[in-house]
């Protein structure tokens, strides 16, 4: 896997993935940025949530669950000192579907946390306290 990050101006950088997708990252105006994109540490958090949600959805699809929507709300804390690493991350999955089985959702979240999500497992191995929770919402057409 490869990527390139290029400085463009002030505190703005453009990252390009090996698959050719680009994203702008920028700092706050106080730090010389123009606030035109997420911060690099926000990208790390978003990537971790994406990695885990991908796993959860793949497992729910494989178990033939009728998922209509899935999101993960991520709450994180960082150290006050430099380096301002993540110290705690909580990922709360909200899975909406038709007749979802709690055992399948619970297992998908657990397997992502313990076995499949490379990003969260890597951060956890580095000392970040990572929590996972979930809730199931029954889909109601027309709402």
TrEMBL record:
Transmembrane segments: none
Pfam families: OsmC
Top-level division of the source organism's lineage: Bacteria
Signal peptide residue numbers: none
NCBIfam families referenced in this protein's UniProt entry, alphabetically: PRK10738.1
Official protein name in the record: OsmC family protein
Organism in which the protein naturally occurs: Halioglobus japonicus
């Amino acid at each position: 896997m490869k990527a390139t990050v290029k400085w463009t101006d002030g505190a703005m950088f453009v990252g390009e993935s090996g698959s050719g997708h680009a994203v702008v990252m920028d700092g706050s105006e106080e730090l010389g940025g123009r606030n035109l994109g997420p911060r690099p540490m926000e990208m790390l958090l978003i990537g971790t949530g994406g990695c885990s949600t991908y796993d959860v959805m793949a497992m729910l699809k494989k178990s033939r669950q009728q998922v209509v929507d899935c999101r993960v709300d991520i709450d994180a804390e960082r150290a006050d000192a430099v380096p301002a690493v993540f110290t705690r991350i909580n990922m709360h999955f909200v899975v909406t579907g038709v007749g979802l089985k709690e055992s399948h959702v619970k297992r998908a979240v657990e397997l992502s946390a313990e076995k499949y999500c490379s990003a969260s497992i890597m951060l956890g191995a580095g000392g970040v306290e990572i929590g996972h929770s979930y809730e199931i919402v029954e889909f109601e057409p027309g709402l």
